[in-house]
Amino acid sequence: MTHKIIKTENYLLVVDDSEVNINQYVYCDLGYIEKVMDIIDGWIYHTNTLGKNPIKHYKKIIAHLPLNNLPVLEGVDLLPPIEDEVDKLSEQEIPYIMDTLRWGFKKGYNKAKEKYKYTEEDLTRAFNIGINSQFESTELKLNKDESFDRHSKNLLKLIQSLQQPEMPFGFECEWTTKQMPEFHQDEPKTTTNLQGQTVLVGKYIY
Description:
Blueprint: E1 2-4, E2 6-7, E3 11-16, E4 25-28, E5 33-40, E6 43-46, E7 52-54, E8 58-66, E9 77-78, H1 85-93, H2 99-115, H3 120-139, H4 144-163, E10 170-173, E11 175-179, E12 184-188, E13 190-192, E14 198-200, E15 202-205
Parallel strand pairs: 8-9
Antiparallel strand pairs: 1-10, 2-3, 3-8, 4-5, 4-8, 5-6, 6-7, 10-15, 11-12, 13-14
């Protein structure tokens, strides 16, 4: 089963429409994460803003991956760590297991990346951002210092975006069949990390 991933500033999230209970984490369609304090007459009372909103605006968070060294959401399953770009490529280009070939591929890829850090597309983006920034400064009638400050901020945003790893848009979860006394039950396959936390088993989709 493939789940859509929601990316916030500090978390990757998988959500669903299952029933929400007190002390669980939910994602609001306004773009933030809440912990449920109470549910009364179709309203969720939450901790983030000590307020309430209709339950229709929320989805239950069933798995997550913290970003930027943020803490885990207690009681919520984890998504696996994101693979390094070169690891993904080595598996795609050399699908059969040959460690020596993959090692050579990774070494060559990383060496080329040192020499060719930015692509033609990256340079085109930088040029277009510079042109647009100049047009905006002219339209806003900014002075020299204000214009320079605007250009610098736009350039910094570009550099930061180029340094960000590619983020997945989906997660394909593996499933396992649990033998019950009177029936079989399919459920997501999980493992346990060194910290004793439950981690979903599967692969990211890019």
